[in-house]
Amino acid sequence: MEQEQFKIEVVPLRGKLSGCARRLLDDPEDVEDIVQEVFLKLWYIREELERYDSVEALAVQITKHLCLNRLRSFQYRQEKLSDSAIITADDNPYVSLEQKDSVSHVMSIMEQLPGLQQTILRMKHVDGFEVKEIAELTGSTPEAVRVNLSRARKRVKELFLKM
């Protein structure tokens, strides 16, 4: 698919994709980020778009998956938690500070893990990937991913409780 054809077929889907993302996400900036990411993904596979019956259906599906991944991601939930903690900071600033401090401790503990465990833990809890996806990306089996994930969680818990 050439650039002009892409502009004709894909760019007009912006409104529909924004509406789809808005139903799942609250933040208008997140919605715009998702729509831009969908366009980027479609651009990268533009040569293969002719194989699909409906480019619109594909774009909506990609939008839905990206939104769900964003909602599942640990980092997104923590940002929302931090935002709500800031709002309630007037009620109890000690609790708010303790929550932020705990998250930063966990992130620093994760950096102490061995490379593969650190990668798998981040992919699972920060990026929101499923075990099967992590196995495919790391070139290992789902069972090996589960074992490494379990060991990494155990180690993070041990180090966190020592603090």
TrEMBL record:
Keyword line: DNA-binding, Sigma factor, Transcription, Transcription regulation
One MF annotation (Gene Ontology) recorded for this entry: DNA binding
RNA polymerase sigma factor 70 region 4 type domain ranges (all copies): 107-155
Organism per entry: Parabacteroides acidifaciens
Upper classification of the organism: Bacteria, Pseudomonadati, Bacteroidota, Bacteroidia, Bacteroidales
Superkingdom: Bacteria
Sequence similarity: Belongs to the sigma-70 factor family. ECF subfamily.
GO biological process, one term: DNA-templated transcription initiation
Name used for this protein in its record: Sigma-70 family RNA polymerase sigma factor
The RNA polymerase sigma-70 region domain, residue ranges: 15-73
UniProt xrefs under InterPro entries: RNA_pol_sigma-70-like, RNA_pol_sigma-70_dom, RNA_pol_sigma70_r2, RNA_pol_sigma70_r4_t2, RNA_pol_sigma_r2, RNA_pol_sigma_r3/r4-like, WH-like_DNA-bd_sf
